[in-house]
Specification:
This protein has 9 helices and 10 strands. The chain has 239 residues and is of the alpha/beta class. It folds into 2 domains: 153 residues, SPOUT methyltransferase, trefoil knot domain (Alpha/beta knot, 3-Layer(aba) Sandwich), CATH 3.40.1280.10; 64 residues, tRNA(m1g37)methyltransferase, domain 2 (Trp Operon Repressor, Chain A). Strands 2-1-6-5-8 form a 5-stranded parallel β-sheet, sandwiched between helices. It has a 3-stranded mixed β-sheet with strand order 3-4-7, with no helix packed on it. Helix 8 packs across helix 9. The radius of gyration is 22 Å and the shape is elongated. 24% of the residues are buried.
């Protein structure tokens, strides 16, 4: 599989300074699984002061991210790479990010991620080009940078060779619609709290069954919406 390229468009590149130099993402870069580039939109504006926002037409509070710097950055990157990217805009108005969507994004060779900021972005950005709008939840942040970091981390960790133990990722929460089971490590007992006997038994089949039961119980208690979806998937109604 060709190395994935992720271009991040933002007016606040400093937010990403630690992201690509730590943990899984750093490992992904060293493994040549991905190239991550952070582009400062202020370098793509004709405004001599580097401004990338302006007041909205029609009045109202807040400022709006201008279309010009986004288009200039996008056109420049498409010319340089001579290809068409998958364009993603991080916005609370988008479809909610799920593990299924993350799996789908892993299949693309080139992602451009736009970090919205201020009150909103100029709507003509989406009129000229096709963008996939993604939200990380039903709440509002100061900008799209943190959501973009979450998206990038979720996608990159699933690329081939990034995580040493692929089975670890496959057993994570949401991979099959259920939450993950609880895990324990040494010592066997600490402050009166013991590791469940089943996990100490060495009986792999019993451990497997215990974890399945724990996953089902956790999902049913903590995320009844996921549990119902799991039941519907397991027992589809006959049409």
């Amino acid at each position: 599989m060709p190395r994935m390229i992720i271009d991040i468009l933002t007016g606040f590149p400093e937010i990403f300074s630690g992201l690509v130099n730590s943990s899984i993402l750093r490992n992904a870069l060293l493994q040549d699984a991905v190239d991550i580039w952070v582009h400062n939109l202020r370098h793509y504006t004709s405004d001599r002061h580097g401004n990338i926002d302006d007041a909205p037409y029609g009045g109202g509070a807040g400022m709006v991210l201008m279309a010009e710097p986004v288009w200039n950055a996008l056109d420049s990157l498409q010319t340089i790479r001579n290809a068409q990217p998958t364009r993603i805009s991080m916005t609370p108005q988008g479809a909610k990010l799920t593990q299924k969507r993350v799996r789908e994004l892993c299949k693309f060779e080139w992602l451009i991620v736009l970090c919205g900021h201020y009150k909103d972005v100029d709507a003509r950005i989406f009129e000229r080009d096709q963008w996939t709008e993604i939200s990380i939840g039903d709440y509002v942040l100061s900008g799209g940078e943190i959501p973009a970091a979450i998206l990038v981390d979720a996608v990159v960790r699933l690329l081939p060779g990034v995580i040493g133990d692929a089975q670890s990722a496959e057993s994570d929460s949401f991979e099959d619609g259920l939450l993950d089971a609880p895990y324990y490590t040494r010592p066997e007992e600490i402050q009166g709290y013991r590791v469940p006997d089943t996990l100490l038994s060495g009986h792999h089949e019993n451990i497997r069954k215990w974890r399945i039961a724990q996953r089902q119980e956790r999902t049913q208690e903590r995320r009844p919406d996921l549990w119902q979806a799991h039941l519907n998937k397991s027992n589809p109604s006959e049409e």
